[in-house]
Amino acid sequence: MLTENKVINLIQATLGKKNKITLKSSSNNTENWDSLNHLNILEKLDKATKGKVAEIAEIATATSVKQIVNILKKKKLLSK
Question: In sequence order, what are the residues at sequence separation of 6 or more whose Cβ sits closer than 8 angstroms to the Cβ of residue 72?
């Protein structure tokens, strides 16, 4: 199961080392978080949850780490 730190690390790895990712990071304030990398983030989250993220329609519109974490918590895919 994912944790908040694992989600942050996954996004960090996807966007590159020069971006410091926190819960406040979003596509508006993070370099390299464009539409293509957003798809890459979703793909990696889907792999990490064994296909469960692909079933969550609302996650496609989540444009911040906090939104992603909240959706994963709501769907019980994130442990404390």
Answer: 2, 7, 45, 53, 59, 78
Q: Which two tokens stand for residue 79?
A: 């442990």
What is the Cα–Cα distance from 79 to 13, expressed in whole angstroms?
A: 20
Does pTM top 0.90 for this prediction?
A: yes
Return the structure tokens found at 37. Answer: 């990398």
Secondary structure letter of residue 63 according to DSSP? -
Partners of 78 in the β-ladder: 2
Query: Residue-wise pLDDT tens for the chain (80 aa)?
Result: 899 999 999 999 999 988 899 999 999 999 999 999 999 999 999 999 999 999 999 999 999 999 999 999 999 999 86
Token pair of 21, please?
């990712």
Q: Are 11 and 42 in contact (CB under 8 A)?
A: no
